[in-house]
Amino acid sequence: MAKYLRASRFAVLAALVGIWIAGCASGVDSRTEAETLVTRARWTVEHFQTRQDDANVLFRQRLKTAHAIAVFPTVTKGAFFVGAAGGQGVILARRPDGSWSDPAFARLTGGSFGLQFGGQSAQVVLLIRSPQALDALLTHPGAIGGEVQMTLGNWGSGLGAATTTNIGADITAFAQAQGVFFGMSLGGAVIERLDSLNAAYYGSQTVSARSILKEGKYVNPGSEPLVAALAVR
Prior knowledge:
Elements: H1 2-50, H2 54-65, E1 68-76, H3 77-82, E2 87-93, E3 104-109, E4 114-117, E5 121-128, H4 131-139, E6 150-152, E7 171-177, E8 181-185, E9 190-193, H5 195-202, H6 209-213, H7 224-229
Helix pairs in contact: 1-5
């Protein structure tokens, strides 16, 4: 009996150690995923900042007055037609002094949202033009097409700019496809907060998108290159 109890205790201890190791590995993986996403978001911003076309001019003009920006480095085609996740990205908000907050993590997915393009993925940047729109996105994921209205700023490089005539729109969307854009429908898009990546990136289980973007309670030095890339050239 004593031998059986010792074996049982050892088995339980081994299981607990395994769970602890798996949890540590998961935390490291999430942190690496978040750090990689921030780096890719910086590359996307730099790409949009340096494009030599009409969309570049419009993007920079709108960025000057944007209250926040959402950057999704890779939005996949299949996601919108088979229901998989569309793409992960980051949101940064402009502070009262004109500087930018650190990033909060988010996922862009479809509802009636659809993309039709020749390539398999696209870089999507959303310029959030009012504080009310940012508050709506923080409070009610999926507000696009509901409380928040979106218009197109550009239909992809090579097809010219499809500039919006609705200057008061809450969000202007810019997209660059790895292929050819045929169309873009943004109604019903959902922006979900990724609390797990926020927690991994900032090392806190109590972090929230609002505490990052609106309250400035959390910072990570690794996001400095991304913030610097947002400086209007």
